[in-house]
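Q: Entry one of two.
A:
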Amino acid sequence: MITYNSANSRPSLGEFVSAAKLWRVWLHMGVQDVKSRFRNSVLGPTWILINLAAVIAAVGLIYGRLFHQPMNEFLPFLTIGLVIWSFITSSLVEGASAFIVAEGYIKQFPFPKIIYLYRAMVPYVIVFSIGLVIFFVCMALYRRQIGWGALWVMPGFALFLLINFFHLVIVAHVGVRFRDLPHLLGSLIQIAFYLTPVIFTVAMLKDRGLAFIYMFNPLYYLIEIIRYPLLNSAPPPLEVVCVSLGYCVVMGIVAVLVVRKMSQRIVYVL
């Protein structure tokens, strides 16, 4: 039998494990969150695919010509970059409201609070998966080959998922106390978008002496650990792996400190 900590207890590693065992609960809740966004819609979640494809096509055609990039290289690069960026943005901005939107559940049910963080990750993964479909279609249209080396994306995605979960843990706890956090993060992530190689390549920055923009940007390494294997069918560069692992450790430590400091007060603040 799974036992739960009380609402005002400090969560331990055991609570994360107990919450993970309740995967049917948080998976169902996460899927329902996606469905609820398109309630009474004829196409339903298919709109995610349509919207993403339209944005990628419009932005790709404009910026590809603007930057004088070969479309068979630039459009797949842009597609996977936007898909990954959407995941990062969701974990930071939408994640700040994870506990707030689950207020009713937290106050009525004795589930570990962590399940509402797992629940929040489900829509991000679903949207990411839909985005991958567009990426593979794009690669096929331009006859870009995907070799077995692309499987390096699997450990990369596992690390990427863990880092974004740490993001979610941090902002969800802080967001309960500071309700302006989603708005602040939304503004900061918009600025970060124009400082991260998503719609422009690393080569463009190097050619203009702006390599420092991506070298000191941890979000670039989070993107590259997935993007590089998919585009090149090869493992990501060692530098990318090392920085990503280091960033994961830092975010993990921060997440632990935030949980210890703020978790006990969540129910009272909500």
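Q: Entry two of two.
A:
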Amino acid sequence: MVEKAFSIPVDGGTLSGVEMGEGLPVVFLHAGVCDHRMWREQMQLAAEMGWHAIAYDRRGYGEAKSEDVAFSHLDDLEAVLASFDIHAAIFVGCSMGGGLAIDFALRHPGRVIGLVLIGTSVTGAPWSATEEESAIEMAEEDAWERGDLDLLNKVQAHEWLDGPRSRSGRVTGAARELFLDMNAKALAKPTLTAEIERPGAWRRVEQITAPTMLIVGEEDFSAIIDRHEHLSETMPNSFAAVLEGVAHIPSIERPDLINRMLEEYLEAFEDEDDDAD
């Protein structure tokens, strides 16, 4: 399936992304250490199954361009949907992309067909770290304060790709090369200082009734695993899975696992359509 590039003007900037396939839309929202390329294999799967797969780079990532102006990622997401004349979609989000999907679902519950949330962030969620996890957070902060972006990228690869409690360099090959390239692009971009803060979602997630698949890697931060368990108990129409041996970015570390789960999720909607017919 051939992907087609697109560019969408927004206030003070331009969002860039790719689309492929035709049918009902599946919108992929990337993690805060990645860009739209983290979803290549999942987009291909969705398109081959007869869905319209869309992924874009948010401001501060990938090929997106932005002046340092006031903006909202929620408003930008709405601009993307409007450009494709999309009223409702399935949203697949990882980390900060998942947090954006949650916030969109709370703002527009009638526009969310379903959610797939991987190691998701949640605005307003608590955070704590084990001693081992705190050590890598301190290394990250030190690299940031020294302005050593190359070192910072390597530390964040350990933190998010390998997992904070795993051996540095656990994930190798094309997955690591892709992560380092995506994150290097984000780190090299000018800091955007005027993002509009979104309302906290942590105490409102029970309002989300769309069918939701929750996924977390067992090598992820313990706070994210705890968050996953809370969401699975709180969101009324959710089902959850913990993936063994993977960390925060399983779509590139183990695309076979994520593709298999995504395929089953999308097939459930196709089965519902068949039953309705």
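A: Comment on entry two: The beta strands are 4-10, 13-20, 25-29, 52-57, 65-66, 89-94, 112-118, 212-217, 238-243. The chain has one domain: 4-127+190-276.
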